[in-house]
Amino acid sequence: MLILYTKPTCAFSRAVEQYVALHHLTVDNRDISLQEAYKEELVAAGGRARTPFLIDTDKHVSLYESEAIIDHLQTHYVTDTIEHGREIPPGTCSPQF
What we know:
This protein is an alpha+beta fold.
């Protein structure tokens, strides 16, 4: 199972979400700006309230950084041949609540 913690105001989160949509991947997308419980889960799992953050329960991997998340998805889950670009630099967004 893929769990992706995001925030709509974070360009890095949007980049990962666009990649997921482009490749028709199934993820449980948890917007931390909508539910405080998601933010608490994120901090408990990763130690920081930064997005994007991916938990891959099948591979036992947790990742911050958009580029690392996209690379992980490309390596383990993408089966199509669509090329993906890096229009947004890798990174994470700090919470601004």
